[in-house]
Amino acid sequence: MATPFQVATVVSSPLYPNSIAWSEENLIAVAGDQIVTILNPDNPHGPRGAITLTAGNPFPVGIIDKKKDLVNGCLLSTCLSRDPRLSARSIAWSPAGFSSNGGCLLAVCTTDGRIKLYRQPYCEYQAEWIEVIDVSELL
């Protein structure tokens, strides 16, 4: 008996709630540890895309300037912690038409506080998606 479900294998399983996203171009992005796998539901065993995350300098989230912030009365007692492993924390697709080829861009937020935009490669023989911009650098 034929089943209406199709099976696709991903490199690593999703870790966070926003780790799976579906685009208007009918692509599915699944964020695992250090890789985001892009699948095409029309052809689950065919060509795929991938984004390999690379570690950089962590974005300075929660850094306290001891000279001016500690004397400020509105500073609450907060404990910030950071996951030492680099992984994709959240992913989201843009609407269709934002990429230079008319497709969707994929935004990836990592555990080191970076947000990067990626686009589909122009060449069909290349699986690795191309980084467009690191939005964190603009902040």
What does this structure look like?
A four-stranded antiparallel β-sheet has the order 1-2-3-4, with no helix packed on it. The chain has a four-stranded antiparallel β-sheet with strand order 5-6-7-8, with no helix packed on it. By secondary structure, the chain is an all-beta fold. It has strands at residues 20-22, 28-31, 35-39, 49-52, 88-93, 106-110, 115-119, 130-134.
In short:
With 139 residues, the chain is mainly β. Helices cover 0% and strands 27% of the residues. A hairpin with a 3-residue loop joins strand 2 and strand 3.
Helices and strands, with pairings:
Elements: E1 20-22, E2 28-31, E3 35-39, E4 49-52, E5 88-93, E6 106-110, E7 115-119, E8 130-134
Antiparallel strand pairs: 1-2, 2-3, 3-4, 5-6, 6-7, 7-8
If helices are DSSP runs of H or I spanning 4 or more residues, what is the number of helices? 0
> What's the mean pLDDT score?
80
Distance between the termini: 55 Å
* Main sheet overview: 4 strands, antiparallel
Q: Uncertain segments of ≥5 residues (pLDDT<50)?
A: none
Strand order, largest beta sheet: 1-2-3-4
Q: DSSP strand (E) fraction?
A: 25-35%
Helicity range = under 10%
Can you count the beta strands? 8
What is the H-and-E element order?
A: EEEEEEEE
C-alpha geometry = globular
> SS-based structural class?
mainly beta
Q: What is the C-alpha radius of gyration, as a whole number of Å?
A: 18 Å
Features of this protein?
mainly beta; 4-stranded antiparallel β-sheet
